[in-house]
Structures are given as C-alpha cells and as structure tokens.
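A quick word before the example. In earlier lectures we treated sequence and structure as two separate objects. From today on, think of them as two lines of the same record. Here is Fe2OG dioxygenase domain-containing protein written that way.
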Amino acid sequence: MMTSAESAILLTRNEARKLRKLQTKKLQAYETVTKFEKVTCSELFSAVPTQYLCLINVNFGGVGNVTTEQLIKIFNSFKGYIGVRLTHGKPYSFVMFDSVSTALCAQKILHEKPNEILNGRVLFIEFVNLKYQNFMNQIEEGSSTPTSTNGKRNIPGLFLIENFITDELSESILNNIYSNTGWILLQHRKVLHYGHKFDYDTNQVGEPSHEFPSFMNSIFDKLKKINYPLLPEMEQLSILHYPTGTGIPPHIDCHSSFGEFIMSISLGSPVIMELKNVKTGEVMNIDLPDRSLLILSNEARYVWSHSIRARKSDQLDNGQVRERGPRISLTLRTLNPDKICKCSWPELCDRNIIHLELNQTPNSIISFIPRKKKTTN
Ligand SMILES: O=C(O)CCC(=O)C(=O)O
Ligand SMILES: [Fe+2]
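And the structure line, produced from the sequence above:
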C-alpha cells in the first residue's frame, strides 16, 4: 500500500501544480461563503448528508456565468432530483433531492470534479445544515422576494400594458435616443429631460425646455387610444438609460412636484421592478417587458415605492434566471402647477415631511425634493 507522501511523489509537476491550484480555489470558495454569511462552515454545512446540496462556488452572474439550464442538465440525470435554486448577489446555489441517499449519490459523483457542462469548472458541493435558517428559507421559498404580480393581489392604481408599442416604433425610438448627444450623466445612469427642465441639484422642476422629441407624437397617439379613465396630458419626460447591471434606488416620485399619474415605457432589456408598500413593508415585484407601458397612480403611485435592483440578472417566478441587457425607460409625468399635493395620504406626503432630514424618512421615499447632497435619482 502506498503512503500519501509516496503517491504525492508520483505526481508530475504539472499535476502537483493543478492540485495546488484546486486546493487554493477550494479554500477561497469556502472562505467567500463563510465571510458572506458571517458564520462558520460547520454552521452552514452538515457533515452528515442531507437532501439539500449547497453548490459553494455556483451562482448566476458570477465567474463562469452558470445558467439554470446548465445546472438542470447536470442534476436532471440523477435519481431523486427535485430542483435547483440559483441565487443573486450570493456566492452559492442549492440543489434539492427527494432523499438523503439520492443527494449523497450526486454529491459523491460531482464534488471536487471538473464538470463538462460547465466547461471543466470544478464544483464544490456540501450538504446544507438543516438548522441553518437562512439557507432553509431560500430553499423553501424558492426566491426571497416574489417576482411578479401574478396570483397576488393587485395594487390599486397599478397597470401594465404589454406590447404597448410595436417593434418597429421601438427600434426607431431607440435609434433616435442612442444618437442623442445631450445626455446628462448621473452616477450610473444617463438621462435626458423634455417638456420641463429638471434640476438634480435642487430636485426641482424648472422652466419649460426642450420640446418633446417628435417620436413622442406616436406615443401620445397610442396613449389616447388606451382605455384608461381620466388620463391627463403628460407634461414632462425623462429618458433614462440603464447600462446592464444598473438600477434605481427605492423612491416615490415627489408628491408636490408631480401629479398623480406616472408612466414608464420600457425599451430594450426586460427588468424586474420592485414595489414596496411603505406603510406595511409588503413587497411585490413586477416584470416590465420590452415595449410595455407601466402606469402608477393612486396607491401604487403614492404609497408604494418603486426601485430596480442593480444586478446583472433577474430571477423569475419559475426559478429561471434571466440575464439583463441595457434598458431605456421613458418616464412621463404631469406637473403640479401650485406644487401642493392633495393626495389621500398626508402622513406619507412631502407636503408634511418636506422639512424633515431625509435620512429620517424610510427607504428614501421622497425623491425630487431638495437635498443637501447631490442625488443619483
Ligand atoms: O426606469 C423606470 O421604469 C422608472 C424610472 C423612475 O422611477 C423615475 O425616473 O422616477
Ligand atoms: Fe420613479
């Protein structure tokens, strides 16, 4: 019988180098997870097999860009496989099996081995400690936040119209927008304003400026045709360019500056928008497809903040992970001529809390009011 020292001697220099590299990778992967979770390996993982596997070095959008399809392909061939959960912004993913023995079988075959489907990438796989609640929540819920309004209650005043404009119109609008040289650079996004100036230093709507671009005529024609009661004529347009991976922080568009109807037309990459009820904390996600029109009015406009997370992909209800690309939004608003908001939520309205320090307001619910610091909204 050969000792490990003897067998080590038999490794070629190349093999020994590869082994060292693998050990370093493994160490780094485990360190990343423990640092991320701020607990030790023994709290995260179980030495005794369980039916849930944690793929320590697999997430979506990270190195190697693993997709849900690839993972399904790897694990589908194992008996007892139930499903995969790729995560966002976390270093790990999970695979569920129907029993401990089936999970054990997959772990034995795949752990520390280069995987063909992942172009030779080595997988590090541990058993989830069933007492580690954060992992169990992610496994049981499938997703930490819901990703669409399907099957959930409707928010009063929230409307999404899919295919609001045609592919042709979208293409000509995008060509026009991308050739514009007047972009104002924000921290991660770029913006163009029409109808009225908008000063990001003071967050005030300014004098009328820049007539609407001519392509907006077709949009206004389409708006007239939708069956939406009391839709006013829109007075201000902000065109936002979101490079892949960027978003917009949670905010409610300023009550006193803008009227009740806020509309957003999405062009380019679809994206998940997160809506949060600032009174109850309830969160609802809505998928904004390319060429769709979103209308926020009533409760959806005044009580729910909206945001887009900065990340390179979105996880959908069915567990699929969808990559993002660049996105353009056309946000249309009306103006409050007297700057006095008469909404039905005085407790949330900036007519009452405009004098407070911004950091006292939850989730930056007020945007577009004077701030001391420059804003990125
Ligand atoms: O990108 C979007 O659809 C929303 C933009 C937005 O919320 C805003 O400009 O206030
Ligand atoms: Fe907004």
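Notice the following. The first strand starts at residue 45 and ends at 46. We will return to this example when we discuss secondary structure assignment.
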